[in-house]
Amino acid sequence: MSGAAGPALPGGPGRSPLPCAPRPAAPLQLAGGAEPARPGVAVIDLRFPRGAPADVQEIVFRNFYTAFLSVRVQRPGPGGSQRWVTCLRDLCLMPCPHTEEGSQDYFCLRRHQMLCDVDQVTAMRFILRQPSPVWLHFTIEDLQIFPPGQKSPQKDFPSWLSQLTPPEQPASLHGVDGCYDVNLLSYT
């Protein structure tokens, strides 16, 4: 997996994503027009069942030729209204949009990477950008949202691993006179 959070496998043992059903990526369109606003911009909307608010710890997905990603969340505002807030702006998923690097990597976006609080979220909007004309179809796949309070599988270590002793220190090379025992050499 790639991205600002680093490689990791999606999901994992002991982790359950929040129930949600993201809509397929839709090209951005101008009001009243049948044509996309401009090539290279698409939106994925995601709602949680029954509009129930959820707290978000991690967002895990597989890229499919999306170069930049922005994420907006909908949260309760004053007076019971719903408010959209940008919590991630133009995250680079592909270092060069014209080449394949990062185009099919897994990404894990963690709570601390967000620009705003991601508690009590009722909906999410993923804004995908691909400025290169090389890739006509782009999206994010295998999208999963994980709540807080679940251990990430990368942090689960067996108890015996934490009790290992440090390796023996190599002999000091200070004071070596440049000589060696010819019997220690091996032919390969």
Termini gap: 39 Å
List the total number of helices: 1
Mean pLDDT across all residues, rounded?
77
- The topology string of helices and strands comes to EEEEEEEEH
- Portion in strands: 25-35%
Largest beta-sheet details: 5 strands, antiparallel
Structural class label: mainly beta
What strand order characterises the main sheet? 1-2-7-4-5
Helix residue percentage? under 10%
Low-confidence stretches: 3-10
Number of strands: 8
Shape: extended
Radius of gyration: 24 Å
Plain-language structure description:
- This protein has a five-stranded antiparallel sheet, with no helix packed on it. A three-stranded antiparallel sheet has the order 6-3-8, with no helix packed on it.
- With 188 residues, the protein is mainly beta.
- It is extended, with a radius of gyration of 24 Å.
- Mean pLDDT is 77; it is low at 3-10.
- The two termini are 39 Å apart.
- It is built from one helix and eight strands, in the order ββββββββα.
- Strand 4 (68-76) and strand 5 (82-92) form a beta hairpin.
- 2% of the residues lie in helices and 30% in strands.
- The protein has one helix at 159-162, and strands at residues 26-27, 41-47, 58-64, 68-76, 82-92, 106-110, 123-129, 139-146.
